[in-house]
Amino acid sequence: MRRFVRSHATELALLAVIAVICVFLSFATDRFFTLGNAFDLLNTSSVNIIFAVGLLVVLVAGGIDISFAVAASVVQYLTATVLGWVGGGNWIIGVIIAGALGVALGCINAFLIHGFRIISIVATISTFNIFFGLLMFFTGGVSIYNLPDWLTNRVVLFEREMADGSWAEITLPVLIMAICVVATWALITRTTTGRQLYAFGDNPEGARRFGINIGAMQFIAFGWLGLMAGIAGLVQAHYAQEVVPNALYGRELDVLAAVVLGGARLGGGKGSVLGCILGVLLVSITQNGLNLMGVSPFAFKMIVGAIILAAITLSNTSIERLLPFLKSRRVPS
Amino acid sequence: MADQALDGATSRPLLSLRNTNMTFGGVKALKNVSFEVLPGEVHCLAGENGSGKSTLIKVITGVYKPEAGAVIDYDGQSYSNMSPVTAQAGGIQVIWQDLALFPEMTVAENIAFQTVIGRWPRLVNYAEMRRVATNALQRLGVTLDVDLALHHFPIAQRQIVAIARALVGEAKLVFMDEPTASLTQSETDYLLDIVRNLSASGVAVVFVSHRLAEVLEISSRVTVLRDGALVGVYPTKGLTQSRITELMTGKTFDYSVLHRDLSKSPVMLEVEGLSRPGEIQDVSLAVRRGETLGITGLLGAGRTELALTLFGMRKPKSGSVVLDGKPVRFGSNRDAIAAGVAYLSEDRLSLGLIQPQAIADNMVIASLDKILSSGFISSDRKRSLVNRWIRDLGVRIGKQDDAISTLSGGNQQRVAIAKWLATDPKLLILDAPTVGVDVGARAGIFDIVSKLADSGLAIILISDEVPEVYFNADRVLHMAQGRIVGEYAPGATTLQAIEEAVYA
């Protein structure tokens, strides 16, 4: 038990904060504690969770990426165009095209970082500008509305009529998100590659001495984030039913904050999929609650910022200090 | 140990190197060196920094290729050079000084990390990892919670993990580079026991350490290198610390206690009943101008805590401090520096010096106000200040603008001392000033300390090596559990008596 608490301190702290907020919102609003709202939360958080687990892999490997959200916008445009060429396609073809394009963009980052030894924040700030600049230049800022029908049609996987006549629905993005989450979890915790990524992020020199292929690590990490970003881009286009070039601009910082909030360390070697999900959920639950309470949307950013600050302070404070009775007795060596 | 050496004389060497030459950019790093290790022996490799120890290790582990003509016989095979792959496959393992561990990963993963290496991705077998790790720890006679992340463990146990990792690689020959540099005395004893277990189970250990007492305690033979050449191979039996030092440096050192008459010298620092719960208890002491007060004790005895309290970085709960006749109460170390207290940190690498920055910048960082000219840093003043200290302290450097990390430990320490002298201190606290400094260079540091004392500075010298304070301080205080438990005058008390009291 003590070991579990010590090794999952961040996740438990986040869970506690989320629980407090949920209890508060359940009493403060009558809509919050309903199945419909819970499902809504999942539907709207899906895109960010997909981004988050992708970014987690890069953070675990000791890198950072600023460009993935605009890369997802680029992928949306290119995918829509390619789908036009192939004559419509379907979900499977769409995911393959978007994923492949995402991987390609991620590999550009990895190539810059590994090939030219540019630190990842600088490399990805550059590609952030290049991707977004190219996108705006070639599209002229024009959105795409005539997407294929399969992409814009809502797919409801599970629905239930509530007492008040409204429908609680789980839609396709949740399924795709779940697949991405499980795949990322399996990659980083169940495969040798994943453990090498952790080791590389934790102590690059130590990893090098073990003969880990450093270049491969960068390409796998940024490629995986590219894959997730590509898929997230497609899902976002589906959810919004349109492709707007600057729709995802700025999303990178929200996702980054959520992932770091979830316990991933800037600098590598630390972070979990569960933490990531909790980080994203904390932010979206807060926004959802503020919405339901009728708080002015202009105050959202401010309050979300304060919540992030409070949660990160809480999870940085050592668990021993918060719960002194858990303090382990040091065995003299 | 002695019977082991006799056994060894009859068995075939596990490793035997001959005619090993190595040149880096015109400098001969190894001159026709030969080296031999017997199966299961603990062999010490001694030499100052730059004597060729690490080059030799890197030749044996395949990192460097020696010049043509070298013969490496290892485990029945003969090679002209090693490759890292052959060396590892043959069971040669190195435990680097920085350990190369993964702090966020579990003990099991750290020990059995080899199982996740390989060209093709596979599923991780955590149960197998746990089994491998537990087995390796069992061979060392240690139990650790293998599922806990490594960063929860103190440094001594991380060492054990690094050793266990080497065992997983089916080690026959393990190199340990300064394994005890950051360990306390009891942790060191524990580690030496582990090394004995290792040796008893048939693994040969090559031990590199600056701490000669350990070398004598653990090894059966010592190979000494100086300036890239072999000085000789000696059985440990019959060697003494001073003999090894002579062999390593080629110089003889004169060890004698200080005899300074300071009874008429005014008191510079007077501490009465200084306490900080859990750290120091009721500490009273006085240091005169021109006096060096030695403080020794095991790590964790409160020595560094006392120093930090005198330096204003920790606030005492009770007690008084009088500096140069004036009662002082420091709110921060800035106050302490302004009042004339300087503190040379025990951790030169991460706290004492800013490693990537230039020598000159490191030297002036504590006295920037002295090199200002109309509010801005004057590069002329900076240069003249730096030149003065480089000359006075005999620092050997290339250029002032070279990074401090390019200097040897001894020269880095001189820069760190110069940094504090530039603040015009009245009291200089030296916390473990010889950690990571060569035996030869240590004498140079203590020459400086002695001259500083003669110039009227009051000096507190903290060290866990009793001989250091014995030969370089006028008085020696012994700290244990935050208290001062003994005071000795070198000369009047023997070194052995103090050592017995401290290590008891």
UniProtKB/TrEMBL annotation, chain A:
One of its GO terms (molecular function) is transmembrane transporter activity. It is found in: Cell membrane. It is a multi-pass membrane protein. CDD domains: TM_PBP1_transp_AraH_like. It comes from the Bacteria. InterPro entries: ABC_transp_permease. GO terms for cellular component: plasma membrane. The chain crosses the membrane at residues 12-29, 41-61, 68-86, 92-116, 128-147, 167-189, 210-235, 255-286, 298-319. Keywords: Cell inner membrane, Cell membrane, Membrane, Transmembrane, Transmembrane helix, Transport. This is Sugar ABC transporter permease.
TrEMBL record, chain B:
SMART domains: AAA. SUPFAM superfamilies: P-loop containing nucleoside triphosphate hydrolases (SSF52540). Residues 15-252, 257-504 form the ABC transporter domain. GO terms for molecular function: ATP binding; ATP hydrolysis activity. Keywords: ATP-binding, Cell membrane, Membrane, Nucleotide-binding, Repeat, Sugar transport, Translocase, Transport. InterPro entries: AAA+_ATPase, ABC_carbohydrate_import_ATPase, ABC_transporter-like_ATP-bd, ABC_transporter-like_CS, P-loop_NTPase. Pfam families: ABC_tran. The keyword Lyase does not apply. It comes from the Bacteria. PROSITE patterns: ABC_TRANSPORTER_1 (PS00211), ABC_TRANSPORTER_2 (PS50893). Belongs to the ABC transporter superfamily. This is Lipase. It comes from Mesorhizobium wenxiniae. The lineage of its organism: Bacteria, Pseudomonadati, Pseudomonadota, Alphaproteobacteria, Hyphomicrobiales.
